[in-house]
From TrEMBL:
Signal peptide: none annotated. Keywords: ATP-binding, Kinase, Nucleotide-binding, Nucleotidyltransferase, Phosphoprotein, Transferase. One of its GO terms (biological process) is sulfate assimilation, phosphoadenylyl sulfate reduction by phosphoadenylyl-sulfate reductase (thioredoxin). Belongs to the APS kinase family. Catalyzes the synthesis of activated sulfate. It comes from Luteimicrobium xylanilyticum. Its EC number is 2.7.1.25. This is Adenylyl-sulfate kinase. CDD domains: APSK (cd02027).
Amino acid sequence: MSPTTTTVALGDDALDGLERALLGVGPAPALPDGVSAVTYTDHENTPLARAERSADLVTLVPLRPLARGTGPAWDPAIRRSASEIRAELRSGATRMVAVVRSLPTRGDLTALGKLISSPDVARPGIVVVVVLVSRRTPPGAISADGLVRATRHAVAQLRQDADETDVVLVAVPSAPGTTPTAQTLADAYGADTVLLLDDERPRLEKEAVLSLRRRQRALADALYPPASATELDAALTPARGAVILLTGLSGSGKSTIARALVSRLEEEGRAATLLDGDAVRHHLSEGLGFSRADRETNVRRIGFVAALVAQHGGIAVAAPIAPFAASRDDVRRLAQEHARFVLVHVATPLAVCEARDRKGLYAKARAGSIPDFTGISSPYEVPTDADLVLDTTRVSVEDAVDRILTVVLAGPTREQHW
């Protein structure tokens, strides 16, 4: 069998992984079985790197620099490879790594200062301060730029106080579930010691950091009457984005529920965007037909726009028929890169949907004048992974909205039927 090659477009988290590999602080991407080479691209299909397999060894070759953002977290002076930094460090020095995973506290800096000045550390010494940064910031979290700015000020002070110790600042891309291990960082920089700064915080300081949000609410309760305190709390609480995808047959009631849901969200002060079938078809998917391929393209386009809305803290409510599991899975993947995803199956029976047929579409489909009509001449793949299943013959629109909001606010849950 001849060797095969392929191309893989990477999302944000995967781009972080690729950059870690290129910086020498993470493993090279694994190649699928039977594939001898992979070209990795960004979402604009720009080739960034090529991984090639030779026997059991995978070699990663950069093709062009990864796109950089602006701000201190993207400063080339701190986004350098481990091999480049090792080449500049004094030979024979004791090497230490201090890892910054959250906004440095006074306790963090005290721990780092003790490490630098410890009598157990042979001189000269070198501390590589690694700031773990992400391409995206969850609502309410400190941005990568903010984390680097705060750490840079701390490092400047440490450099003044250090005696025979170099302090080097680097930024390493990270994302939830893909943080480099302490051993990986130690190996990358040739360190004898790795210190995870937030693990070294005094107990009282850890508790104080965790209680900041609670103390904010307690102070609001002391200053304001209950209704005012609740409004202030809502205004100060970072809103996390979400994509709510309602899927179901034509006439199932998903558009009615979606409109009511958006109205409720807007009444509660949330930024909500409705992506309904007809409007999307007219503006976003003009020119597409109703073949399986075109329907899946339509749903993927909806998913892309919905994910952009959610990325910036908004709530996108989409109500296409979305008859195929593959395109629904694509929407889930796009949404979960940035926000919460909730799949709602509006499972109103076909006979009821047909009886509600205000546009006469089912009658035309039965007569054969509309080909590829979902539920009649084209299949509807019933979701097996819905977070909520609603039958509008049993649940009112108001109750449906209440149940959707309950799932959104409660977080991941097992499928619920109503």
